[in-house]
């Protein structure tokens, strides 16, 4: 069966809305065959200059966002005993580099979660893959003075 595409907006760093969006998707289509987690935020700066608030925002977008969405879709895949889950992550989930501590930490956490999930989902015939590309060029806003949110790469 072929379905018309439907655009559903989601801020992956807004953990509170993810379950509702997943319900909307499942109500619309009945199932998800392939879930590709490909959203990310990064920030560049020395550890001592990045606020804990920003560390948490990066962790929400890069770790809690993808796992919250995955956990919301997973019961449907398990009940059907089929599905594919893909995490598009980063080489920084394997190695850290200076001035990227919050980003690398969130990517390391995501790799750990999805590695464990892969082992757990084998019995349900659900494939879990993690892709860790090297450095890519992504959209960047130039920050205004004192505007740390604008220094985030999206």
TrEMBL record:
Family per similarity comment: Belongs to the short-chain dehydrogenases/reductases (SDR) family.
Tagged with keyword Ribonucleoprotein: no
Entry keyword set: NAD, NADP, Oxidoreductase, Signal
SUPFAM superfamilies assigned: NAD(P)-binding Rossmann-fold domains
Source species taxonomy: Eukaryota, Metazoa, Chordata, Craniata, Vertebrata
GO terms for MF: oxidoreductase activity, acting on the CH-OH group of donors, NAD or NADP as acceptor
Encoding gene per record: Dhrs7c
Protein name (record): Dehydrogenase/reductase SDR family member 7C
GO BP terms: intracellular calcium ion homeostasis
């Amino acid at each position: 069966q072929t379905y018309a595409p439907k655009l559903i907006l989601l801020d992956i760093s807004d953990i509170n809305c993810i379950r509702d969006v997943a319900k909307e998707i499942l109500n619309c289509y009945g199932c998800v065959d392939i879930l590709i987690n490909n959203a990310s935020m990064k920030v560049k700066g020395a550890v001592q200059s990045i606020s804990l608030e920003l560390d948490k925002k990066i962790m929400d977008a890069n770790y809690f966002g993808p796992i919250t969405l995955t956990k919301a879709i997973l019961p449907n895949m398990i009940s059907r005993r089929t599905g594919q889950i893909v995490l598009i992550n980063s080489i920084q989930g394997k190695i850290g580099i200076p001035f990227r501590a919050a980003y690398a930490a969130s990517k390391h956490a995501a790799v750990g979660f999805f590695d464990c999930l892969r082992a757990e989902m084998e019995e349900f015939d659900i494939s879990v893959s993690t892709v860790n590309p090297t450095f890519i060029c992504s959209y960047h806003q130039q920050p205004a003075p004192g505007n740390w949110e604008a220094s985030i790469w999206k």
